[in-house]
Amino acid sequence: MAMIMQMTPFIPNLRKGQTQNLNFPNKHSSIRSCCSVGSSDLVVSQRLVQQFNPKIPVEEAVTPPSSWYTHPSFFHLELDRVFYKGWQAVGSTEQIKNPGDFFTGRLGDVEFVVCRDDSGNVHAFYNVCRHHASILASGSGQKSCFVCPYHGWTYGLNGTLLKATRISGMRDFNVNEFGLIPIKVATWGPFVLLNLKKENLSEKEVDSHNVAKEWLGSCSELLSTNGVDSSLSYLCRREYTIECNWKVFCDNYLDGGYHVPYAHKGLASGLNLDSYSITLFEKVSIQSCEGSSSEKSKENYDRLGRKAIYAFVYPNFMINRYGPWMDTNLVLPLGPNKCQVVFDYYLEPSLQDDTGFIEKSLQDSEKVQIEDILLCEGVQKGLQSPAYSVGRYAPKVEQAMHHFHCLLHENLTT
Ligand code: FES
Ligand SMILES: [Fe+2]
């Protein structure tokens, strides 16, 4: 699988006679920690973390308490420890296919912009103007530079401050120190990844092998050989805002098909649920299931194919590969009780013009999403009830969910 990785360089726009200062961080470009956890919050949330014991085997374990899914302090600890470190999927390479393409997004409190410059290099930056903190770029599209909508400061696609308006008379100002603040960016297959770790503010190149290892561990090969790669064509995006904690959506995904016969009767007829298998890797779990080839489920079989693979990449990214399709689900935390799920659909290129098949498949998929949203919002309401504190795992099917909770516990305690 082709991998393109690079650290976003800081390339100052040098004037004659100036020296190049490439050191990060410096007094003007250093960033403060994204952490929004106060010390009393920290005590509270760490006490909550300890209420789950990952050492207890799944057969005897109780689930994390409901406070993990509802408490604001716990949510802020998660942003700090889980989302502001390590590689995070944020989008598709399709969004930055051509020079000048860009897209923006938000992870926790962090606004970011990813773009491809004229030389084809991919960059990512904090999407914040260095003048008075205005959000710089919005949405996605094509640009030759980023012009701040507030007072017109202008930045190149490589982050350089190209123009600072009306600064005559300003003292002790070095334009080279006021470029956009870079974020470490990489791509793996068709996915764009960011790493917000504070110490990333260096010029060090991103090592492609390390990214694959850090993000996917030992299953990167397995995903490549099972068709999770760039050979499919990007088709479309669907976004859902859901009134539930981000982990409720993940848990629902990770129950080993437990809920499928009850909540997705249409989908269940296309799957041979007895063939369900679960494999755990370091930070990834893979659930797979064969398609049902009975005459009754012929249409479903065309969409779902012989075998479906559902890969969960900790903490919040799902890769679903079935038949000619791949869809990815990115679960973005918006608050203790709210998340957004972004679905990107990819399809075998030979089927790209088969509008009837595409429409029917997307409708079937949408039906499953709506069913899942209702389940997740119902669970969130239940988690808020004083009647519920912890639950149990069905050990034969919910190992991947237990694995997720153990990883999260480890992440929150280190
Ligand atoms: S805030 Fe961007 S130019 Fe003033
Ligand atoms: Fe579901």
Automatic annotation (TrEMBL):
Its cofactor is Fe cation; [2Fe-2S] cluster. It comes from the Eukaryota. It catalyses: choline + 2 reduced [2Fe-2S]-[ferredoxin] + O2 + 2 H(+) = betaine aldehyde hydrate + 2 oxidized [2Fe-2S]-[ferredoxin] + H2O. Its EC number is 1.14.15.7. Keywords: 2Fe-2S, Iron, Iron-sulfur, Metal-binding, Monooxygenase, Oxidoreductase, Transit peptide. CDD domains: RHO_alpha_C_CMO-like. GO terms for biological process: glycine betaine biosynthetic process from choline. PANTHER family: CHOLINE MONOOXYGENASE, CHLOROPLASTIC. This is Choline monooxygenase, chloroplastic.
